[in-house]
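Example 3.
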Amino acid sequence: MPKIETKNINLYYGDFHALKGITMSMEPKTVTALIGPSGCGKSTYLRIFNRMNDLIDNVKLSGFVLVDGQDIYEKGTKVDELRKNVGMVFQKPNPFPKSIFENVAYGMKVNGIKDTKYITQKVEQSLQQAALWDEVKDKLKKSAFELSGGQQQRLCIARALAVEPSILLMDEPASALDPLSTSKIEELIYELKKEYTIVIVTHNMQQAGRVSDKTAFFYLGELIEFDDTKIVFTNPKNTKTQNYITGRFG
Amino acid sequence: MAHIDDELDQLKVDTLGMWTLVQLQLRKGLEALTKLDKDLAREIILSERRVNAYEIKLDTDCENIFALFSPVAVDLRFVLAVLKINTNLERIGDIAEGIARFVVETDDSFDTKLLEITELLLMYEEAIDMLETSKKAFEMEDTKMARSIFKKDEYLDKINFNANEIIANYIRQNLDHTEQALYALSIIRKLERVGDQSKNIAEEIIFYVEAKVLKHKTE
């Protein structure tokens, strides 16, 4: 069973038709890259998986979005539970104005977990998974703002992992980072793929090539091509995809 | 370990796999030739398909690494070197197959005197040794070892250079062995090509490790 599946998704912002009949599926423990020029609908598509678009006025959605076979837009879906299962990392690191420890512990505490031993263990485990533990283990009480941009982004990834999601959504997670931090995030994605299903929006074509198993090319709200990344980057079937990835338009 | 490192490691493993197969083809060719073992020769001809399959796989893997990882510096040189080494190995595979076809077609064992005066078997051993040395040099990134191949190639060139006259004299004295003498000359030509391919491979190893281009230069 696919981990994520969408069937004939149409999404409107008011009168603007932002996603046009998108049908695709993502297998468990794979990385799917969403690429395309600005305004093509890739971030909008990403945000339907944890119902982030619900927060925007005048959004109308039709079609089906299935996570683990369950329609997440069905009446009665607990959105809080959904967002625990579907973590998200944004373009700009957004740590809370709290200590490093509290940032990672936050999600657990909000979800009512009070067992201090469990929380401490989970904070360490999440920071290790995010490849940040060795750099912060001696300063967990320091403010998260004292970390570099790249470290802050990995802290945000640790924060997302602490509530034990099975899916991670990443919206240009490295576009605000320097090349070294970008490389660390990419290596992290490669490691996290062993346990999580990851969907990443990226403007960086090389990044899509390096980190993803599948690539979806969006253009003007349509899914133009969705295939193995190897195929998309060596022999795309659609001329628009070819022109985009070779930098001839967009 | 970074993703690209995994891909490059795997590419190296697969390249060494092809190397081992081609070495084996060449070794079996020598055995088939000395024992006139036609079954072994047929086995070599059949195994040539595996060499070809390896070549296509390595080509595709290199293409994917270029497309997906945009390698630079030593990584770029490594993938470029593998692409060319792949072609050279495939050609050595073709040569082993060609020698096997002679064995299948010929009726009589080679005259030992002919093998002796042409130094064909010594040449064959040296060609195998060159291929083995190049494999070790690639595996260990040892450019000193790679450079040792150039000297060995000169030895093969010398045998090849002398072959015309030696074989012409032999034919004059052994007209009934003309056909196998021509086969021997052809095999010598092929082994000389193995030497050239191994030399090309050595140049690629030096290019990859030291970023030095030795092509069309005398070192």
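The longest strand of chain A covers residues 16-26. Residues 15 and 58 of chain A are 9 Å apart (CA to CA).
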